[in-house]
Design brief:
8 helices, 0% strand, mainly alpha, 245 residues
């Protein structure tokens, strides 16, 4: 039963992974070409920032291509279908392993930075925010720009925890979807092939009616009888009109 339902479930999981792939490519593009995006992170972790941009681009492209491989496998012959689904599962497992390695390396780099003097200087700079905001509110008496800067700082401070929660939830969902996709691909490879007939194999010319069954013969006889009755009825009506003239 699980093997029979695996192809349909795999298609739905691949749809969600495609959304993740597009989001990863969009984020990688912003990290590469938007100079205002994550400027603090780019200045504090320049090497990690470039590695994250490259990893997001490669992972997003892979997540977009693997669902196409699965879709092609589900419409292929039995032998090719199994091989393509096994390749899909292996590629997804390698992608998960690469993500784990990159995440561990990035966590180690951040942990090392937190123990460095630069982290202490950053903490002191962030503590100055309590003194900068009253100064901005004072300067806003003469120009609205400092007030706008103060609003942006407050908004960033309030949105940071929410963005972190959303990122953690989406990361947990991705960590669940990728092993599930690999497992469903392995189950779908063992499922019996139920490939629908291709549209290119369906003939375009109409098929002649079949009168092998008794029901079809009765319907055809009734239709012919009805047409003959209509023909003779109209013929008699026209003859009566001519005689009356």
């Amino acid at each position: 039963m699980c093997c029979r339902a695996a192809p349909a479930l795999l298609a739905h999981v691949n749809l969600l992974l495609t959304v993740y792939g597009g989001a990863a490519l969009a984020t990688a593009a912003r990290l590469k070409w938007d100079p205002s995006t994550y400027v603090v992170v780019r200045e504090l972790f320049p090497r990690e920032y470039r590695a994250a941009a490259a990893t997001l681009a490669a992972g997003g492209a892979t997540l977009l291509l693997l669902p196409h491989l699965a879709a092609a496998a589900l419409n292929a012959e039995a032998r090719a279908r199994r091989l393509m689904l096994y390749a899909y599962a292996a590629a997804m497992a390698l992608l998960v392993a690469g993500e784990l390695v990159f995440g561990a390396w990035l966590a180690a780099q951040v942990a090392a930075w937190l123990r460095s003097p630069a982290a202490q200087q950053m903490a002191e700079a962030l503590a100055l925010g309590d003194h900068v905001r009253p100064l901005l509110r004072y300067l806003a008496r003469w120009h609205p720009l400092p007030d706008r800067i103060d609003e942006l700082l407050q908004e960033a401070q309030e949105d940071a925890p929410r963005n972190a929660y959303v990122a953690l939830a989406l990361g947990a969902l991705l960590a669940l979807l990728q092993p599930l996709a690999a497992l469903l691909a392995l189950l779908a490879a063992r499922a019996p092939a139920t490939r629908a007939r291709s549209a290119s194999l369906v003939p375009l010319h109409p098929r002649p009616p079949s009168y092998d069954s008794g029901w079809a013969r009765r319907v055809a006889a009734c239709c012919v009888t009805y047409v003959i009755k209509i023909y003779y009825k109209e013929k008699n009506v026209k003859k009566a009109q001519i005689d009356s003239c």
